[in-house]
Amino acid sequence: MSVLGKKWVIKNTDSECGVLDKIRENRGLKDPDDLREFLNPDLKDLHNPFLFNGMQNAVERVEKAIKKNERIIIYGDYDVDGISGSAILYLTLQHLGGQVSYRLPHRVEDGYGLNDKFINEFEKIGIGLVITVDCGISNYKQVELAKEKGIDVIITDHHTIPLTYPEAAYEVLHPCREGGNYPFKGLTGAGVAFKFAQALLMRDGHKEKDNELIFSLLDLASLGTVADLGPLVGENRLIVKKGLELLPNTKWEGLKFLQEIAGVKNSDPINSSVIGFQIAPRINAAGRIDSPYYALQLLIQGGNSEAAQKLAKKLEDLNRKRQDMLHKAVEEAEKRVHEKFIEKGETKIIIEYDKYWHSGIIGLIAGKLAEKYTRPAIIMQDFGDYLVASARSTDFFNIIEAITKFSKYLDHFGGHAQAAGFNIKKDNLENFIKEITTYTDETLKDTDLKPTLSIDCEIKTSDINWDTVGFIESLAPFGTGNENPVFLMKNVTVRNARSVGRDNKHMSLELNSGTLPMRGIAFNMGKFKDYTGKRQTLDLVFRLETNQWNNNKTIQLNVIDFK
In this model, does residue 62 exceed pLDDT 70? Predict the structure, then answer.
């Protein structure tokens, strides 16, 4: 067993294959043409947005609204995907001369998706058209209410399509819509919004300024795609790769200041991790524990540098507060879970709730528990008469399928196979927990719940060179569906190990395999420093990366586990 208690699984053990061939095979890129297309995505490879079922109808409705000077509302979700997608459509309609404004629900006060309060408000202020972003597919009742009030609703969404389809919608743009011909199904909410914007701008006459805007929206689309864990293959890979190229010189004033306050330097390479760990958490913080409007207003900020700076500073402060709240809540949750699942070996699903766990961070808590204990987790904030829940799961258990099965107990729900949310009345909680626990235990009874670490292949010292590193870097951006390659090297001699960083959290390693000296860094593994000193050799699992210091580039092993 490794020091992290993980079971190592090697994907490719073909002794006739070289390391680069194994990496290609593991990603389905054995064919040279597939590899060439994967490594060199081009904007001309963007699919025609009019392949979406309903796109022509949706575009014509927006054109009619602009021509008649109707009031249009963009209604988005409060996370990065919804906020960046809302910014895309708002900026596009503003560019086209639409009378457009926006609304975002408050996570605690309004909950997820459309609700009656907003529909009633839209009627009062004379809204003719509502366009949802990253929500709406599960709000059939609210869409029916809007239609009764003479308001058309165009839904743009990517969440799992429920059994009760929103038939009253004027149009639904969804990559997985039945009868649709769109070739890529993995778009996130921001991706669908981008495709709608692309279609609207294509219909505007292919003006040069329209083409420029389509291109400039890719960095906003990349934010939602990465943050919402869209698979980084196909069109998503193209969106993110081109978006990352734009970020250092983005035209969006607020995004410039957000990167600056997040510590992103123009001289540094910007990769998907920069979005995932530096930019996205700050945007998300607004919708998690305060108002999502701070984040949206930042992204659509024009040339007002002072306002953009203030908004960026606000998001930074909220993110720090969110980090403190999360740290405390995770400690409490892990203590409960450890007693139940480690000491007593209870059920296959984690379900916990507390009145002090803010609904804005319960998804993060659930994600950490699901990852650590390798099982689905449902975490809730208790409001007395009802609870708000967020669920996260592993790749071998479909959490939205399970929730849907017991939706008779829920007021509202929605999500994906690995992430979902719902509201439930306290009176229904006991029955819901009992039935979903029984279902999960039965479904996972023959599943090994030990955490696994997926490894591409074993690697030899001779294969650790700049050609290998260069090929790995060409596969970026990395993320869901296109993970950074992971290697195993056995019998590595540890010459020196020392703890480094704040609170000695990390570990620096001087290594030898054969006669070749190597350097490694093991983040958040400083506590294992003494373990390494007691053993002459270790088996290491790591990623290869470039370390640059004082204009000197070296190859470094980013160690993620060992035994």
Answer: yes
